[in-house]
């Protein structure tokens, strides 16, 4: 995915999480939650996991599409979804919805352009945010859930990540940045020397 420039952050975080599980020390602090458990936690967690799963599939199909474009492959996305559904480690009932999305003959650059998945995103994104917020307060890492939210926020606001990266580069190395509200190249003195 990287050499094709495909944003597969959820897939990458899943792999990194696997490495982290082997690298963690057994001497770490035990996580204890002292706050109240929200009544809608289980419902929100289910919605967050469903949306994160959809993002992982969307990224996987986006990677396939970009590879097909780069290598002139003729991929049949409904057949791929059907094949995975028939007995693969990543099979799930969601593949039927993916098959329908691609079977309607639409050329989707991203699965979330399909009305079903766009609706799923709009309904479930508040739950995803709530779960990540609660986990962050409790000190629980949520790499794939956070990557899912970051991906969705980024694809629907494509200039935001680039703007933030420009700011970070200027902060760390005085690399300058452009502004949206006026012409020119800018640099900010972000902190005082001590």
UniProtKB/TrEMBL annotation:
Superkingdom per UniProt: Bacteria
Gene designation per UniProt: gnd
A molecular-function term among this protein's GO annotations: phosphogluconate dehydrogenase (decarboxylating) activity
Protein name: 6-phosphogluconate dehydrogenase
Organism, scientific name: Lactobacillus kullabergensis
Residues in 6-phosphogluconate dehydrogenase C-terminal domain copies: 1-191
Source organism phylogeny: Bacteria, Bacillati, Bacillota, Bacilli, Lactobacillales
Pfam families recorded: 6PGD
Homology family: Belongs to the 6-phosphogluconate dehydrogenase family.
Any one biological process term the GO annotation gives: D-gluconate metabolic process
InterPro entries recorded: 6-PGluconate_DH-like_C_sf, 6PGD_dom2, 6PGDH_C, Pgluconate_DH
Key words of the record: Gluconate utilization, Oxidoreductase
The keyword Plastid appears for this protein: no
């Amino acid at each position: 995915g990287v050499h094709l420039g495909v944003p597969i952050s959820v897939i990458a975080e899943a792999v990194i999480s696997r490495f982290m599980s082997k690298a963690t020390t057994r001497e770490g602090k035990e996580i204890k939650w002292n706050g109240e458990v929200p009544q809608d936690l289980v419902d929100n967690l289910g919605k967050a996991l469903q949306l994160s799963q959809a993002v992982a599939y969307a990224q996987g199909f986006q990677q396939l599409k970009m590879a097909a474009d780069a290598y002139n492959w003729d991929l049949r996305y409904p057949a791929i979804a059907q094949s995975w559904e028939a007995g693969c480690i990543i099979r799930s009932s969601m593949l039927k919805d993916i098959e329908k999305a691609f079977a309607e003959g639409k050329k989707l650059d991203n699965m979330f352009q399909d009305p079903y998945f766009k609706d799923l995103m709009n309904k479930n994104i508040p739950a995803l945010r709530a779960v990540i917020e609660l986990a962050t307060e409790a000190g629980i890492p949520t790499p794939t859930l956070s990557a899912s939210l970051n991906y969705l926020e980024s694809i629907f606001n494509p200039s935001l990540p680039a703007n933030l990266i420009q700011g970070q580069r200027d902060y760390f190395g005085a690399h300058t940045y452009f502004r949206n509200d006026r012409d020119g190249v800018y640099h900010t003195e972000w902190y005082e020397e001590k």
